[in-house]
Design a protein that fits this description.
About 35% of the residues lie in helices and about 15% in strands. The chain is of the alpha/beta class. Strands 1, 2, 3, 4, 7, 8, 9, 10 and 11 form a 9-stranded mixed sheet that branches. Strands 5-6 form a two-stranded antiparallel sheet. The protein binds 2-acetamido-2-deoxy-beta-D-glucopyranose (4 copies).
Length: about 270
């Protein structure tokens, strides 16, 4: 289970989110950004910009009360304040990677994190160093045992750079948090067709179906019908990604609870 948290500025904490024992639950802090507070890029030096109520103490406490909880930091996201963020090729890619490793290492140690998620969402033309830099960053963090889990979050118009990343560095990428809601498919059959397409691009095993609470794409219990259809069609679902806990608080975390019930049921059959 994967769930983004902390992107909207609503003062969130981990405690109210329903977490079941029996499957790993990854909270994804949103976001750590290679920018200063004015939105200027810092050559790979990342800083945390998730809501400040998600503290290092909060992370330690939720992990202590639920040993199946892991907490990650997602890199970049759509924007910082009014500044739309984009990938940029650094002048010196190796320097960018080493800045990324050292700044993330300090954030990861401070916040007791287990991994990183990659969520760059805008790719200007002719920027070709994304796979090299991000692949190098993940590899180095794993090599130094700073992280144990790494995920990537492509969406419909950003699949190309992520396919290049996954083709080159798939060994160190654990799950694909593909943002199915950006395909704006509203019915289970359409969801299945989209899942098949993305499974061809990224492989079915690491690909997680995803849901945006009060958002785009399939909504309501049709999502769970889509999950059943995926299973009936032979896909072994290895998780579900939800965006985001910030919205889940408004309906008692219904989609989190139902998704975990679905996954637990699926793993016991
Ligand atoms: C961010 O960086 C830019 C350019 O490097 C600089 O002009 C600006 O003052 C910095 N902002 C802050 C808040 O440090
Ligand atoms: C990419 O860069 C090349 C060489 O600098 C240039 O000829 C080409 O027009 C650029 N392509 C785009 C889509 O910007
Ligand atoms: C880290 O990289 C070195 C050199 O490539 C390699 O020998 C070592 O096994 C790697 N360690 C881990 C934990 O991946
Ligand atoms: C659990 O799985 C069984 C068999 O696939 C199904 O009939 C049942 O509705 C499932 N229950 C839940 C809570 O998903």
């Amino acid at each position: 289970m994967m769930e983004y948290i902390g992107a909207t500025g609503i003062p969130m904490t981990f405690d109210p989110v329903s977490v079941e024992d029996g499957i790993d639950f990854h909270f994804i802090l949103s976001f750590a950004i290679d920018a200063n507070s004015s939105g200027n890029s810092q050559n790979g030096v990342f800083s945390p910009y998730w809501v400040p109520t998600l503290t290092p103490e909060g992370v330690a406490a939720i992990k202590e009360s639920h040993p199946n909880v892991k907490v990650m930091a997602s890199l970049s996201g759509w924007s910082l304040g009014d500044t739309v963020l984009h990938w940029y090729d650094p002048e010196d890619p190796d320097k960018w990677v080493s800045n990324g490793v050292s700044s993330l290492k300090s954030i990861i140690n401070k916040y007791h994190l287990d991994g990183i998620d990659i969520d760059y969402e805008t790719f200007p033309k002719n920027q070709t160093k994304f796979a090299y830099c991000i692949g190098g960053l993940i590899s180095e963090l794993k090599n130094q045992s700073v992280i144990t889990v790494a995920t990537i979050a492509p969406f419909y118009s950003t699949t190309d750079p992520y396919i290049e990343l996954h083709d080159g560095y798939g060994d160190v990428i654990d799950y694909i948090n593909y943002q199915f809601y950006t395909d704006k498919v509203r019915r289970p059959q359409g969801y299945l067709e989209t899942f098949k397409l993305r499974a061809m691009q990224f492989g079915a095993e690491k690909l997680l179906p995803s849901y945006e609470i009060a958002g785009r794409g399939i909504q309501g219990d049709a999502f769970f019908q889509a999950l059943e259809l995926l299973e009936d069609s032979g896909f072994a679902l290895n998780g579900v990604m939800i965006f985001s806990a910030d919205a889940g608080s408004q309906n008692g975390y219904y989609y989190e609870r139902e998704s975990q019930a679905f996954l637990l049921n699926a793993t016991t059959v």
